[in-house]
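testing teh design pipeline on a random one, pls ignore if ur not involved
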Protein backbone atom coordinates (compact mmCIF):
# COMPACT_ATOMS: atom_id res chain seq x y z
CA UNK A 1 0.00 0.00 0.00
CA UNK A 2 1.33 3.45 -0.95
CA UNK A 3 2.00 5.65 2.10
CA UNK A 4 0.28 9.02 2.41
CA UNK A 5 2.18 11.85 0.70
CA UNK A 6 3.60 14.61 2.90
CA UNK A 7 1.47 17.76 2.72
CA UNK A 8 4.54 20.01 2.67
CA UNK A 9 5.84 18.09 -0.34
CA UNK A 10 2.52 18.69 -2.10
CA UNK A 11 2.77 22.38 -1.17
CA UNK A 12 6.26 22.46 -2.74
CA UNK A 13 5.01 20.83 -5.92
CA UNK A 14 2.26 23.44 -6.24
CA UNK A 15 4.82 26.13 -5.42
CA UNK A 16 7.04 25.06 -8.34
CA UNK A 17 4.04 25.56 -10.61
CA UNK A 18 3.07 28.89 -9.05
CA UNK A 19 6.52 30.44 -8.63
CA UNK A 20 8.33 28.99 -11.63
CA UNK A 21 11.08 27.13 -9.83
CA UNK A 22 12.04 25.01 -6.86
CA UNK A 23 14.11 27.73 -5.16
CA UNK A 24 11.18 30.15 -5.07
CA UNK A 25 8.82 27.39 -3.96
CA UNK A 26 11.18 26.46 -1.13
CA UNK A 27 11.39 30.09 0.05
CA UNK A 28 7.59 30.41 -0.01
CA UNK A 29 7.32 27.28 2.15
CA UNK A 30 10.05 28.48 4.52
CA UNK A 31 12.43 25.63 3.66
CA UNK A 32 16.07 25.42 2.66
CA UNK A 33 16.37 24.34 -0.96
CA UNK A 34 18.33 21.09 -0.22
CA UNK A 35 15.54 20.01 2.14
CA UNK A 36 12.92 20.90 -0.44
CA UNK A 37 14.77 18.86 -3.08
CA UNK A 38 14.88 15.82 -0.80
CA UNK A 39 11.16 16.10 -0.04
CA UNK A 40 10.21 16.23 -3.71
CA UNK A 41 12.43 13.27 -4.53
CA UNK A 42 10.77 11.31 -1.74
CA UNK A 43 7.37 12.23 -3.19
CA UNK A 44 8.46 11.06 -6.63
CA UNK A 45 9.54 7.73 -5.18
CA UNK A 46 6.23 7.37 -3.35
CA UNK A 47 4.21 8.03 -6.51
CA UNK A 48 6.60 6.20 -8.83
CA UNK A 49 6.90 8.96 -11.41
CA UNK A 50 9.02 12.00 -12.17
CA UNK A 51 7.27 15.18 -11.14
CA UNK A 52 9.93 17.88 -11.53
CA UNK A 53 12.49 18.13 -14.30
CA UNK A 54 15.69 19.83 -13.19
CA UNK A 55 17.74 21.75 -15.70
CA UNK A 56 20.35 24.46 -16.00
CA UNK A 57 17.68 27.16 -16.11
CA UNK A 58 15.76 25.79 -13.15
CA UNK A 59 13.03 23.29 -12.33
CA UNK A 60 9.75 22.79 -14.17
CA UNK A 61 6.90 20.35 -13.73
CA UNK A 62 6.74 17.32 -15.98
CA UNK A 63 3.38 16.47 -17.60
CA UNK A 64 2.79 14.01 -14.76
CA UNK A 65 3.85 16.67 -12.26
CA UNK A 66 1.30 19.09 -13.70
CA UNK A 67 -1.49 16.54 -13.21
CA UNK A 68 -0.37 15.70 -9.67
CA UNK A 69 -0.06 19.43 -8.84
CA UNK A 70 -3.68 19.92 -9.92
CA UNK A 71 -4.88 17.27 -7.48
CA UNK A 72 -2.46 18.49 -4.82
CA UNK A 73 -4.24 21.86 -4.88
CA UNK A 74 -7.51 20.09 -4.12
CA UNK A 75 -5.93 18.14 -1.25
CA UNK A 76 -4.38 21.30 0.25
CA UNK A 77 -7.65 23.22 -0.08
CA UNK A 78 -9.57 20.41 1.65
CA UNK A 79 -6.93 20.29 4.39
CA UNK A 80 -7.29 24.03 4.97
CA UNK A 81 -11.06 23.64 5.23
CA UNK A 82 -10.57 20.81 7.71
CA UNK A 83 -8.33 22.99 9.90
CA UNK A 84 -10.80 25.90 9.72
CA UNK A 85 -13.63 23.59 10.76
CA UNK A 86 -11.57 22.24 13.67
CA UNK A 87 -10.83 25.80 14.83
CA UNK A 88 -14.55 26.62 14.66
CA UNK A 89 -15.36 23.53 16.71
CA UNK A 90 -12.84 24.55 19.37
CA UNK A 91 -14.46 27.97 19.53
CA UNK A 92 -17.94 26.47 19.85
CA UNK A 93 -16.86 24.06 22.56
CA UNK A 94 -15.31 26.83 24.64
CA UNK A 95 -17.98 28.44 26.84
CA UNK A 96 -18.56 32.11 26.11
CA UNK A 97 -19.96 34.77 28.41
CA UNK A 98 -21.04 38.13 26.98
CA UNK A 99 -21.44 40.76 29.70
CA UNK A 100 -22.76 44.30 29.29
CA UNK A 101 -22.21 46.83 32.07
CA UNK A 102 -23.02 50.45 32.74
CA UNK A 103 -20.02 52.74 32.63
CA UNK A 104 -19.56 53.30 36.36
CA UNK A 105 -19.83 49.58 37.14
CA UNK A 106 -17.61 48.64 34.19
CA UNK A 107 -14.89 51.03 35.29
CA UNK A 108 -14.87 50.41 39.02
CA UNK A 109 -16.33 46.97 39.80
CA UNK A 110 -16.36 44.66 36.78
CA UNK A 111 -12.55 44.31 36.47
CA UNK A 112 -12.35 42.92 40.00
CA UNK A 113 -15.35 40.63 39.48
CA UNK A 114 -14.11 39.24 36.17
CA UNK A 115 -10.57 38.85 37.50
CA UNK A 116 -11.83 36.70 40.38
CA UNK A 117 -14.06 34.72 38.02
CA UNK A 118 -11.16 33.97 35.69
CA UNK A 119 -9.26 32.38 38.57
CA UNK A 120 -11.91 29.66 38.83
CA UNK A 121 -13.18 29.52 35.22
CA UNK A 122 -10.26 30.31 32.91
CA UNK A 123 -11.88 28.17 30.21
CA UNK A 124 -14.64 30.75 29.69
CA UNK A 125 -14.17 33.33 26.95
CA UNK A 126 -15.52 36.64 28.26
CA UNK A 127 -16.63 39.65 26.22
CA UNK A 128 -17.42 42.93 27.98
CA UNK A 129 -19.56 45.63 26.39
CA UNK A 130 -19.87 49.03 28.06
CA UNK A 131 -22.95 51.25 27.66
CA UNK A 132 -25.23 53.36 29.81
CA UNK A 133 -27.78 51.52 31.96
CA UNK A 134 -30.69 51.96 29.58
CA UNK A 135 -28.76 50.50 26.66
CA UNK A 136 -27.53 47.61 28.82
CA UNK A 137 -31.14 46.70 29.64
CA UNK A 138 -32.03 46.90 25.95
CA UNK A 139 -29.15 44.56 25.06
CA UNK A 140 -30.21 42.06 27.70
CA UNK A 141 -33.83 42.13 26.52
CA UNK A 142 -32.77 41.75 22.86
CA UNK A 143 -30.51 38.79 23.59
CA UNK A 144 -27.39 40.78 22.73
CA UNK A 145 -25.64 39.64 25.91
CA UNK A 146 -25.99 36.95 28.55
CA UNK A 147 -25.86 39.22 31.58
CA UNK A 148 -26.05 42.93 32.36
CA UNK A 149 -24.99 45.13 35.27
CA UNK A 150 -26.91 48.37 35.74
CA UNK A 151 -27.07 51.25 38.18
CA UNK A 152 -30.51 52.62 37.39
CA UNK A 153 -33.17 52.79 40.10
CA UNK A 154 -35.56 50.52 38.18
CA UNK A 155 -35.34 47.43 35.99
CA UNK A 156 -37.62 47.08 32.94
CA UNK A 157 -40.50 44.62 33.05
CA UNK A 158 -39.62 41.21 31.70
CA UNK A 159 -36.09 41.13 33.13
CA UNK A 160 -34.96 39.42 36.31
CA UNK A 161 -32.47 41.05 38.65
CA UNK A 162 -30.50 40.64 41.85
CA UNK A 163 -28.56 43.22 43.90
CA UNK A 164 -24.78 42.91 43.51
CA UNK A 165 -23.53 46.09 45.22
CA UNK A 166 -24.63 49.32 46.84
CA UNK A 167 -23.58 52.83 45.94
CA UNK A 168 -24.31 56.45 46.80
CA UNK A 169 -24.40 59.55 44.64
CA UNK A 170 -22.91 62.73 46.07
CA UNK A 171 -22.76 66.37 45.05
CA UNK A 172 -19.15 67.28 44.32
CA UNK A 173 -17.32 70.52 43.61
CA UNK A 174 -13.62 71.38 43.29
CA UNK A 175 -11.86 72.55 46.45
CA UNK A 176 -11.97 76.22 45.38
CA UNK A 177 -15.73 76.32 44.73
CA UNK A 178 -17.83 78.52 47.10
CA UNK A 179 -19.93 75.48 48.08
CA UNK A 180 -16.79 73.79 49.44
CA UNK A 181 -16.74 76.40 52.24
CA UNK A 182 -20.42 76.18 53.16
CA UNK A 183 -21.15 75.54 56.80
CA UNK A 184 -24.74 74.50 56.19
CA UNK A 185 -25.97 71.79 53.83
CA UNK A 186 -27.66 72.76 50.61
CA UNK A 187 -31.40 72.43 50.39
CA UNK A 188 -32.86 70.16 47.72
CA UNK A 189 -34.46 73.20 46.12
CA UNK A 190 -31.08 74.97 45.89
CA UNK A 191 -29.56 71.95 44.20
CA UNK A 192 -32.45 71.65 41.77
CA UNK A 193 -32.17 75.35 40.86
CA UNK A 194 -28.43 75.10 40.16
CA UNK A 195 -27.16 74.30 36.64
CA UNK A 196 -25.17 71.06 36.91
CA UNK A 197 -22.80 69.02 34.79
CA UNK A 198 -24.79 65.83 34.19
CA UNK A 199 -24.65 62.47 32.46
CA UNK A 200 -26.60 61.81 29.28
CA UNK A 201 -30.19 60.57 29.14
CA UNK A 202 -30.26 56.83 29.71
CA UNK A 203 -27.52 56.88 32.31
CA UNK A 204 -28.38 55.29 35.65
CA UNK A 205 -26.75 58.19 37.47
CA UNK A 206 -28.87 60.69 35.53
CA UNK A 207 -32.04 58.69 36.11
CA UNK A 208 -31.43 58.48 39.87
CA UNK A 209 -30.88 62.23 40.10
CA UNK A 210 -33.90 63.06 37.93
CA UNK A 211 -36.18 60.93 40.09
CA UNK A 212 -34.85 62.51 43.28
CA UNK A 213 -35.50 66.03 41.96
CA UNK A 214 -38.66 65.38 39.95
CA UNK A 215 -40.89 67.47 42.24
CA UNK A 216 -38.70 70.58 41.94
CA UNK A 217 -38.22 73.22 39.27
CA UNK A 218 -34.96 72.28 37.56
CA UNK A 219 -32.32 74.48 36.03
CA UNK A 220 -31.10 73.49 32.57
CA UNK A 221 -27.87 71.45 32.67
CA UNK A 222 -24.56 73.20 32.14
CA UNK A 223 -23.29 70.21 30.14
CA UNK A 224 -24.45 66.71 29.29
CA UNK A 225 -21.56 64.26 29.01
CA UNK A 226 -21.31 60.60 28.08
CA UNK A 227 -19.29 59.19 30.97
CA UNK A 228 -18.66 59.69 34.65
CA UNK A 229 -14.99 60.31 33.91
CA UNK A 230 -15.89 63.15 31.56
CA UNK A 231 -18.21 64.70 34.16
CA UNK A 232 -15.52 64.40 36.83
CA UNK A 233 -12.91 66.05 34.59
CA UNK A 234 -15.33 68.88 33.85
CA UNK A 235 -15.95 69.46 37.56
CA UNK A 236 -12.22 69.45 38.30
CA UNK A 237 -11.79 72.02 35.55
CA UNK A 238 -14.24 74.38 37.28
CA UNK A 239 -17.21 74.04 34.91
CA UNK A 240 -19.67 73.52 37.72
CA UNK A 241 -21.04 71.10 40.35
CA UNK A 242 -22.10 67.57 39.53
CA UNK A 243 -23.72 64.56 41.14
CA UNK A 244 -21.52 61.48 40.80
CA UNK A 245 -21.08 58.01 42.24
CA UNK A 246 -18.74 57.71 45.19
CA UNK A 247 -17.06 54.95 43.18
CA UNK A 248 -16.03 57.53 40.58
CA UNK A 249 -14.73 60.19 42.97
CA UNK A 250 -13.37 58.43 46.05
CA UNK A 251 -9.67 58.97 45.30
CA UNK A 252 -10.30 62.63 44.41
CA UNK A 253 -12.13 63.12 47.71
CA UNK A 254 -9.23 61.49 49.57
CA UNK A 255 -6.73 63.81 47.86
CA UNK A 256 -8.87 66.89 48.54
CA UNK A 257 -9.23 67.84 44.87
CA UNK A 258 -12.98 67.34 45.13
CA UNK A 259 -15.26 68.11 48.07
CA UNK A 260 -18.64 66.55 48.90
CA UNK A 261 -21.43 69.07 49.47
CA UNK A 262 -24.13 67.72 51.76
CA UNK A 263 -27.78 68.21 50.76
CA UNK A 264 -30.34 68.27 53.54
CA UNK A 265 -33.05 65.65 53.11
CA UNK A 266 -31.70 64.15 49.85
CA UNK A 267 -31.06 60.41 49.84
CA UNK A 268 -29.14 59.29 46.75
CA UNK A 269 -28.25 55.78 47.84
CA UNK A 270 -28.88 53.18 45.18
CA UNK A 271 -28.62 49.47 44.49
CA UNK A 272 -26.50 48.15 41.62
CA UNK A 273 -28.02 45.10 39.98
CA UNK A 274 -27.31 42.17 37.71
CA UNK A 275 -30.07 41.76 35.11
CA UNK A 276 -30.94 38.92 32.75
CA UNK A 277 -33.71 37.48 30.59
CA UNK A 278 -36.00 34.67 31.78
CA UNK A 279 -35.94 32.05 33.13
CA UNK A 280 -35.59 33.32 36.66
CA UNK A 281 -32.83 30.85 37.51
CA UNK A 282 -29.67 32.03 35.78
CA UNK A 283 -27.62 29.06 34.58
CA UNK A 284 -24.20 28.51 33.01
CA UNK A 285 -21.20 30.83 33.38
CA UNK A 286 -23.47 33.86 33.84
CA UNK A 287 -25.13 32.23 36.83
CA UNK A 288 -21.75 31.22 38.26
CA UNK A 289 -20.49 34.80 37.97
CA UNK A 290 -23.54 36.30 39.69
CA UNK A 291 -23.42 33.74 42.50
CA UNK A 292 -19.71 34.47 43.03
CA UNK A 293 -20.41 38.22 43.24
CA UNK A 294 -23.36 37.92 45.61
CA UNK A 295 -21.50 35.54 47.91
CA UNK A 296 -18.68 38.07 48.18
CA UNK A 297 -20.87 41.06 49.03
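output:
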Amino acid sequence: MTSWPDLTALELLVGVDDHGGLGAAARAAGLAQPNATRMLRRLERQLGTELVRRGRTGSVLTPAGTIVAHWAREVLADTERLLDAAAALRSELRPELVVAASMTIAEHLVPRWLGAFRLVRNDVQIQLRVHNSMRVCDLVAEGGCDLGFVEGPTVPDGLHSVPVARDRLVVVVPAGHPWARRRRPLTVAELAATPLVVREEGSGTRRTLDLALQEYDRAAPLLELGSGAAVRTSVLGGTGPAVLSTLAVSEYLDSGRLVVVEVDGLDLRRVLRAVWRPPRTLAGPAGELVRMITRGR
